[in-house]
Amino acid sequence: MLEVDSINTFYGKSHILHDVSFEAGADEVVALLGRNGVGKTTTMKSVIGLTPPQSGTVRFEGEVVSGDSPSSIANRGIGYVPQDRGMFPELTVEENLTMGLGTAKRDETIMAEIFDRFPRVEERMHQKAGTLSGGEQQMVAMARALMRDPKLVLMDEPTEGLMPSLIPEIADITEEIADSGYSIVIVEQNVDLVLDIADRIYLMDNGRIHEQATPADLRDDETILEKYLGVGI
């Protein structure tokens, strides 16, 4: 479904991603793991078109999308949950969700599914997004990414910055989305969550992907996580 082939991405003259390659198949959950600052978020932004790679190729369902605008890439069926949640604080929750539609029309069947998955989002529909808690904003960001019923969802640190008491709830929602048949590429520091939901894991360091592993591999050999994250299981 998603094929990222030897992309190189720069911020100005700073070379951030070096020949990054990975893929995610249909109904597959793929995780990018690594310490802060190794290029995981830039990889996600390169896929969605916010920081287009200067070389290499991103393909979605066999078609080249690298070089396309973010809105065009989203229209092809890729949803994006940004690391900073991307809220418009002065807009209501409903207006923030509508931003996720782009030029598409609101589908009430999809809305019903979203409200079933995020009942708190439905409760807050007429509340300004800036007044929500961090966990509620994260739910809105995730719901917004699902508004067009995408085939692939990019999730960048869905549990980052949340109160510890909220992390299990967001983790459960993330796992439920994965179990619903969406293809997912996730960046996440919550190793337990990644090991629970991922089919394959790519380990990044210094803007490169160095290893590919399965959750079983990482459970069997904790030195891999210690090398790339400085933590054990």
Word description of this protein:
This protein has helices at residues 40-48, 70-75, 93-99, 108-117, 119-123, 134-145, 167-179, 191-197, 215-220, 223-228, and strands spanning 2-11, 14-24, 29-33, 55-60, 63-64, 78-81, 152-156, 183-187, 200-205, 208-213. The mean pLDDT is 92. A hairpin with a 2-residue loop joins β4 and β5. It has one domain: Rossmann fold, CATH 3.40.50.300. It is an alpha/beta fold and 233 residues long. α3 runs parallel beside α6 (134-145).
Using brief descriptors, characterize the structure shown.
single chain, 10 strands, alpha/beta, Rossmann fold, 26% strand, 233 residues, six-stranded mixed β-sheet
Q: What is the name of the CATH class?
A: Alpha Beta
Total number of strands: 10
Q: Count the helices. How many?
A: 10
Q: What profile does the largest beta sheet have?
A: 6 strands, mixed
How many whole angstroms does the radius of gyration measure? 17 Å
In short:
By secondary structure, the protein is α/β, with parallel strands linked by helices. It has helices at 40-48, 70-75, 93-99, 108-117, 119-123, 134-145, 167-179, 191-197, 215-220, 223-228; strands spanning 2-11, 14-24, 29-33, 55-60, 63-64, 78-81, 152-156, 183-187, 200-205, 208-213.
What topology emerges from the helices and strands here?
Layout: E1 2-11, E2 14-24, E3 29-33, H1 40-48, E4 55-60, E5 63-64, H2 70-75, E6 78-81, H3 93-99, H4 108-117, H5 119-123, H6 134-145, E7 152-156, H7 167-179, E8 183-187, H8 191-197, E9 200-205, E10 208-213, H9 215-220, H10 223-228
Parallel strand pairs: 3-8, 3-9, 6-7, 7-8
Antiparallel strand pairs: 1-2, 1-4, 4-5, 9-10
